[in-house]
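note to self — DONT lose this again. spent like an hour looking for the file last time. sequence + predicted structure for the chain T wanted, 242 res
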Amino acid sequence: MATTSDSTTPAETSAAAPAQTTQRTVRAKATLDKHESILFKIKLQDATGKHVPVYEVANKMIGFFCSAGRFAVCQELSALIDRFLESHPNFTLIYMSLDTTEQAFNRTMEAHPRWLAVPYNDPIRIDILSEWDTKGVPCLHIYDPIEHKILTSWGGSCLRFNFEHCFQEWKEGYEGVTFWQIIKGWWYYTAPKGVFKDMSDEYLGTHGAPRLEGSDGDDHGSGSGSGSGSGSNRSAETKKDK
C-alpha cells in the first residue's frame, strides 16, 4: 500500500546507488526535455490567478495535491502541507482541484497563498487525475522532475509520520515513509489544531475556507485540525491513508 510500483529492488539499490547520485547531478537540466517532463504539458497559476512559468518549479521537488476544499480531511492535510512549505523552500505544491465549482476552487486557493495550481478549466487536470488513477481525496503525489517520475502517491503519510526526514528521502529517490512508520504513526499522531468541517462547495464558495487556529491574516489557510474532527466525517470519496 505505502509502496509504489516504481520502488527499487534491494539488489538494484546496492549495485546502482553511487551511479544514481552521479546521474541525478548530470541530469538536472533534463527537466527542460518537453518530451519527458509532465511539467511541460500543463499550465500553472498562483493563488491570485497569475500565470507562473513552469521553469520556475522545474528543479524543485513537487507535490501534486489531488483534493477538494469542502472535505474536513482535505483541510487537515492542507494545513500540514502549508507547514511543510514554510520549512522546505525547494518543495512546490501544485493543486489538482476536485472542487465541483470554480468559485470553490478560487476560495481554496485564496486560503493557501503559497500554492500553485493547474487552472480549474484546463482539461488536462482531469486527464492527469485519470492517468494517475486517483480514486479519492486527499491524495498527494510526490513528483521528481529530474527523474521524471512519481516517487510515491502516499505523500500525506510522509508528512504525517515522517515530516522531518521525508524530503531528504525523496531527494535520494525513496518514497519517504515506511509501513512501520504508518502503522506506528497512527497510534501517536496528533493532527494540528484547527476548525475543520465538511461543507458543500456552495458554502465554501460563499463563505470561504474556515479560519484555523494559529493562523494570521496573510496565511489564513495554514492551520490544521483535530484528529477527531477530520476522522469523524469521511465520505466514500475520501481516503485517510494517503
